[in-house]
Design brief:
21 strands; 453 residues; alpha/beta; seven-stranded mixed sheet; nine-stranded mixed sheet; binds thymidine-5'-diphosphate; globular; binds magnesium ion
Length: 453
């Protein structure tokens, strides 16, 4: 007889407890414990020694098949996935509501259906009519795309075993439920169980599964971190509510490198790829204005040029105001302290606002030099030459430290028509001369300031 037991789970980190608690001792979240009933079915079957068929294999005996990745027909997505979909893998796509997760995956379905792949799109959120309406906005579809409105995973499992599609899309894991678990859909144990049974489906039948997950206000996929550990690939869809572009970021990838990004633009006909994000980010850059400089940040294997803006003005109150949009606030404070102490600029009595134009978030230390130069340019009210780009990490003694992948950055700058590149001296020594762009190595922040501002 299965015995029923009540356990309390923290909805934010998955900690379990026998009693209800106001605050989670593990993650510090308040009011996050929810009661869940688990039936502890003891497995009565014990494995006898003869039954064990698991076999130990030598590495050299394992045969690998050639790479059999399925391309999605969207180059930006393929890049983030590491070259395409790996059969039998599970991909989690997270993001805020309304960012375009369903749209992206419906577009993937359309492209794959064009290549005669068998796809099943399972929606637990929208009715068939609503999906059809979205599909009509996106464009023409093959008739062969199969749709299913269902939230019961056992039924989905049965249909999948019968129809054997190659790729499944689950529109929102939070709506799926497993009959064996009594708690409500979207709760920690439901999400975990549902992911578990989908995982079995993926690995057992060799089906690639895309799973959409909603994101909480703190920016993590709702449900415990467990979800991220279970799947093979985690992609986050992020973007500014006010800007049309969206960034798909690879956070975890068992079959490729992480930190790759794909850039999209939301149009009236669905998501469109942005082939050259640097050009996109630099659009609308003011000419001849002080406090603006172009820096270069690497996103995975791709260099992205972006405009760093700063506004430094005299503070009317004792406490100067500082803000940073799109980059780390503490880093900006640190760089201002470096300018005060190592360069001797009186920034202590100034308000400072730093912004990465376009609403993109960049935290790579290589943009330090850009932030510093933008601040000084605004402080002195002297514009920096438009055709100049800079990158380099700034250390606490005011030194400019080397950064990796300098060659790609320089080539990207050259491609977009920049003529001067300010970079760390130590990095410059490792580079061969590039035709058409002048490389200027600097040792310290002071050198860089003397040079351009
Ligand atoms: P959706 O894919 O439903 O978001 P999610 O599944 O992440 O919640 O995206 C919906 C938003 O995208 C909605 O605000 C409308 C907009 N949109 C367009 O601008 N153009 C389009 O062609 C489509 C299909 C949606
Ligand atoms: Mg949706």
């Amino acid at each position: 007889m299965a015995k029923e037991k009540t356990i309390y789970y923290c909805q934010s980190c998955g900690t379990e407890s026998a009693k209800w608690m106001g605050q989670c001792p593990s993650c510090g979240e308040w009011n996050s414990f929810v009661e869940e009933i688990v039936s502890s079915k003891k497995s009565t079957k014990t494995i006898s020694r003869r039954e064990i068929t698991a076999k130990v294999t030598k590495l050299k005996d394992i045969e690998t098949e050639g790479e059999t990745r399925i391309t999605t027909g969207i180059a930006e997505l393929d890049r983030v996935l590491g070259g395409g979909i790996v059969p039998g893998s599970m991909i989690l796509v997270g993001g805020d509501p309304g960012i375009g997760k369903s749209t992206l995956l419906l577009q993937v379905c359309r492209n794959l259906a064009e290549c005669n792949r068998d796809i099943l799109y399972v929606s637990g959120e929208e009715s068939l009519q609503q999906i059809k309406m979205r599909a009509e906005r996106i464009g023409t579809f093959r008739d062969s795309l199969s749709l299913l409105c269902e939230t019961n995973l056992e039924i989905i499992d049965e249909i999948v075993r019968r129809d054997r599609p190659q790729i499944i899309v689950i529109d929102s894991i939070q709506t799926m439920y497993n009959e064996n678990v009594s708690s409500a859909p979207g709760s920690v144990s439901q999400v975990r169980e549902s992911t578990g049974s989908l995982l079995q489906m993926a690995k057992g039948l060799g089906i690639a599964i895309f799973v959409i997950g909603h994101v909480t206000k703190e920016g993590v996929v709702a449900g415990p971190r467990v979800l991220e550990h279970m799947v093979d690939t985690v992609l986050y869809f992020e973007g500014d509510r006010h800007a049309a572009y969206r960034i798909l970021r690879g956070v975890k990838n068992r079959f490729g490198s992480t930190n790759e990004i794909g850039v999209f633009e939301m149009r009236s006909g669905g998501l469109e790829e942005v082939k050259n994000p640097s050009e996109f980010m630099l659009g609308g850059k003011p000419k001849g204005a002080s406090g603006s400089v172009v820096a270069c940040s690497m996103e995975g294997s791709r260099p992205i040029l972006l405009e760093v803006q700063a506004l430094v003005c005299h503070s009317n109150f004792g406490m100067p105001r500082r803000t940073a949009a799109g980059t780390d606030f503490n880093r900006v404070n640190l760089l201002m302290a470096v300018l005060e102490k190592r360069v001797g600029l009186k920034m202590g009595a100034c308000d400072a606002y730093v912004n990465i134009a376009g609403g993109i978030k960049m935290n790579e230390p290589a943009i330090d030099l850009g932030i510093v130069l933008a601040l000084v340019s605004s402080y002195k009210n002297r514009p920096i030459d438009e055709k100049t780009i800079c990158f380099g990490e700034v250390g606490l003694s005011g030194e400019v430290r080397s950064v990796n992948m300098a060659e790609q950055r320089v080539l990207e700058a050259k491609k977009l028509g920049f003529t001067t590149c300010i970079l760390p001296e130590t990095t410059k020594e490792t580079l061969v001369k590039v035709e058409g762009i002048c490389l200027v190595g600097v040792k310290s922040v002071k050198d860089a300031i003397d040079l351009v501002v």
